[in-house]
Amino acid sequence: MKAARALICLGMFALAGSLCATRAAAEHPVEPLIRFAEARLESLDREIQDYTCTLVKRERIDGRLSPYENMFLKLRHEQIVDGKVAVPFSVYLQYLAPAELKGREVIYVHGHNKGKIIARRGGKRFAYVTTSVAPDSELALRGNHYPVTNIGMKNLIRRLLEVGRDELAYDECKVEYLDGAQLNGRSCLVVQVTHPIKRDHFRYHMARIFIDKELMLPIRYASYDWPETEGSPPPLIEEYNHVDVKLNVGLSNRDFDHRNPAYQFRKTFEP
Q1: Which of these, 117, 125, 158, 248, could form a disulfide with 108 (CB 3.0-4.6 Å)?
Q2: Position 270 in a domain
Q3: How many domains does the chain have?
Q4: d(C-alpha 73, C-alpha 107), whole Å
């Protein structure tokens, strides 16, 4: 594992210095980033089984920027043994802020609970109400860009790869590597991707990915729309921050069971 981590580290610093060489070789600016992401995604399956963190997100919904949402996240990656799912992808969320969501809890275990999420309302009214809904239902997606099935840094890498591969069909893309950044005391390399000219096939004007130099993980992603007027700041589309990340803490099935006595779900609830 240490050897693999060292190779990823070397690849990361090579990535930061490769922009000039990339242009000289007539390679698309996002190709080095795609190769790095593919390698890191493959290594995650070997290195990381689970983690906890505080997820801080903000999204523009129907033209309005939502307040910051702070959630304590427990996440367990799917683990395949002998071609079978030995451990399913599992998520537990507890909302810490804002006040109208504080105390809300969400559990999702792939292939369990009839494919639904189990949620406790939280907030200031009817906080005790426990229900289950499909993760892609209108109710579950209210106030969210993505379903809970897409949560986590591994899924973020997958989404970045999807967008990056789409970029290969087009020019007008600038990629910069900005060293020396920090997020919550963590040293990061920032990858900034910019589309100077607005085109229908581009999903954003600018995106910034903060890669934690020690963890080799994208702990912050933010994307921005094109400025409304020349010289004005680009409006935020969405941002996701992973703070106080703890890897391989040994999460068990109990951590993703709504009957866990540490949780506030209605224990007799059946999805």
Answers
A1: 117
A2: no
A3: 2
A4: 10
Dist CA 3 CA 7 (whole Å): 6
Q: Which residues pair with residue 183 across a beta bridge?
A: 186
Residues 6+ apart with CB under 8 A from 134: 115, 116, 117, 140
> Residue 15 is inside which H or E element, if any?
helix 2-16
Looking at the chain, how many residues does it have?
271
Could you give phi then psi for residue 161, rounded to 5 degrees?
-65, -40
Structure confidence by residue, pLDDT tens digits, 144-190: 999 999 999 999 999 999 999 999 999 899 999 999 999 999 999 99
92 in the same domain as 57: yes
C-alpha count within 13 angstroms, C-beta hemisphere, residue 80? 5
Give residue 70's domain range. Answer: 50-151+250-256
Asked if the structure places residue 268 within a domain, the reply is no
Q: Is the pLDDT of residue 23 over 50?
A: no
In the three-class reduction of DSSP (H, G, I as helix; E, B as strand; rest coil), residue 94 is classed as strand
Give strand pairing partners of 176.
192
Residues 41 and 165 in one domain: yes
pLDDT of residue 25: 59
Query: What is the spatial distance between Cα 174 and Cα 204, in angstroms, rounded to a whole number?
Result: 13
Give the integer Cα–Cα distance in Å for 68 and 74. Answer: 19
- 73-102: b (≥16 Cβ within 10 Å) or e: bbbbbeeeeeeeeebbbbbbbbbbeeeebe
Cα–Cα distance between 115 and 215 in angstroms, integer?
A: 32
Cα separation of 147 and 112, whole Å?
16
**Which of 8, 38, 36, 4 lies closest to 175, judged by CA?**
36
Q: What does the pLDDT look like over 62-90, one tens digit per residue? A: 999 999 999 999 999 999 999 999 999 99
